[in-house]
Amino acid sequence: MERIRAGHFSCHFRNAGLPASLRSGVQQKHMGWATVYIDLLRKGETVQFRPRGNSMAGKIESGQLCTVTPVSPEALEVGEIKAKQGDRFQIGNNRGRINGWIGHNGIYGKCVRIE
Questions:
Q1: Which domain holds residue 42?
Q2: DSSP-assigned states of every residue in 34-81
Q3: Contact of 41 with 70, CB cutoff 8 Å
Q4: Stronger pLDDT, 114 or 76, i.e. the higher one
Q5: What's the CATH code of the domain at 46?
Q6: Which H or E run includes 91?
Q7: Which residues contact 36 (CB under 8 A, 6 or more apart)?
Q8: How many domains does the chain contain in total?
Q9: Cα(69)–Cα(108) distance, rounded to whole angstroms?
Q10: Could you report the per-residue pLDDT of 61-82, keeping only the tens digit for each?
Q11: pTM for the complete prediction?
Q12: Is 99 among the domain residues?
């Protein structure tokens, strides 16, 4: 498993500065910190990072190490996501706020461990 650490993971991405070894060959102005993780998840890799922020407080505290594995959106069930309607998934935060609906192409992984 490749271990990579970066910053904030939520619907409001902030550039937390990826390690130089991960930035090589990538135009920074066109990527957020999550781009590397998304690419690895799409390749079937498990990733780890430390999200910053409070949108998931109570489930994930700012700075905790999160392990995310690739997931097929079809395998997700209500409870792991807010709601499912055909090929659309409702997403929200841990404070009861609904962020909206996304398609299956917007789901890259599932958090399976929080340390």
A1: 20-114
A2: THHHHHHHHTT--EEE---SSTTTTTS-TT--EEEEE--GGG--BTTB
A3: yes
A4: 114
A5: 2.10.109
A6: strand 88-92
A7: 4, 6, 18, 22, 26
A8: 1
A9: 8
A10: 999 999 999 998 888 888 888 8
A11: 0.69
A12: yes
